[in-house]
Amino acid sequence: MKYALFTGCTIPARALNYELSARKVAEAFGIEFIDINEPSCCGMPMRNVNRDACLAMSANTLAKASEMGLELVTLCSACNSTLSEASVELSHDRELRKRINAKLEVTGSGLYTGDTKVWHFTRLLHEKIGPEKISQAVKRPLTGINFVSHAGCHYLKPSETFKRFDDPEAPTTLDALIKATGANSVTIMNRNECCGGGILGIRETTSIKVASGKLQRIKARGNVDAMVLHCPFCNIQYEGNQKKAEKEIGEPIDLPVLYLPQIIGLAIGIDEKDLGFNLNRVKPKTILDRLAAGVKEA
Amino acid sequence: MSQNADRPTLPISKLDPSFKYQVAKEVGGERIKSCFQCGTCTASCPIRAVDEDYNPRKIIRMVILGMKEEVLKSEAIWLCTYCYTCQERCPQDVGITDLMFALKNMATREGHMHPSYNAQIGVLSNFGRMYEITDFDNKKREKIGLPPVSNSKEVVNVILEKEELKGAAQ
Predict the structure, then answer these.
(1) Do A109 and B155 count as a contact with CB atoms less than 8 A apart?
(2) pLDDT in tens, B136-147
(3) What is the pTM of this model?
(4) Among A16, A49, A168, whose Cβ lies nearest the Cβ of B108?
(5) Chain B neighbours among A 155-174 (CB < 8 Å)?
(6) Which domains, and CATH codes, for chain B?
């Protein structure tokens, strides 16, 4: 299984633990990643101010995968929805494709023929490998560990673009993969709420309030070992801005926030050093210690 | 006594009755006229839950009333975090997240781009990506066995220039 890997802007600079663990997990399940050459922004930030600029940037990336003759895999949910929407729109609307390609032509970059399928790595794991095969590969089950999943928005919405592969109101695919490690996926009120990261640069106080709300509900539930997510923006909100959230709610949170491939890697026996836990800001020490001691008690 | 006695009134002469049609011509704005003001969007909105300045139902009402200046110059339209919750739930299929993108695009064309995008456009133009990859970053990557990444800005720059985005918010 060969795929073109697009790591986007944030991950290769700020989420090396996600990138590293994803590459290791892919390798373990026979998924070969070929990095897209000279990657540039997927276009998402420009979507707000100029749709054509966003589409042209997306088309540039989609064209590169197309030239490689491969389907494209993203690790970032924002890249996932931006590229997926562009891929759907540009493949259905020939006039639009012509207009966007005319912009690319000036840049001298390859034109987009409208045939690149886009995968989020989580969806790829769920559909091409599957929870069953993953659970069979588990060497160190995460039994008794409680995770709260954060599927986020741009992994599966707008559901029209993603043909409802997962339920936008009650998603289950991320949880199925968490459970495949032997861990529990526990729930909290309003679990599917957005991280608020979309307006971090517009009005930080409001953005942090949104993220704080979910962190506070997780604390209130109690007995949660970590949050598990699969988007670098959601991570900035819940892990990167956790100190700010603590100020907002006036109490310590101290909740580790892990990337899905980190916990899958842990369960299938990949060396902890190769999963980048040392790069997590809130150290998942309790989980790692319990695993080292052999987790049995629930 | 009316509760609204103290509210400022808006003279009809200041409204632009064609505004909703202009919005309906935008990609993402097509279905605005189907809104029947049920408020499912506002009730579902995670931003609205913590910040009263953002109210999608009200923004749609303002568009339909023709309050073009007030909408396009407002900061409110920039407070949508594009989570699509309202869009998924809207019983009239107004496509509210896409509508907000359309309003932000229109505002930008009218010279009201939110100033925070100046910095983002600057970074994109300099590096072709939202985070510069420095030699230090590549050394860090190499140390843990990750391949090097380059800043490739040429294509992004041509697109930004072609769409006249550099300095759009002067």
Answers:
(1) yes
(2) 999 999 999 999
(3) 0.96
(4) A49
(5) 157-159, 168-169
(6) 13-109 (1.10.1060.10), 115-169 (no CATH)
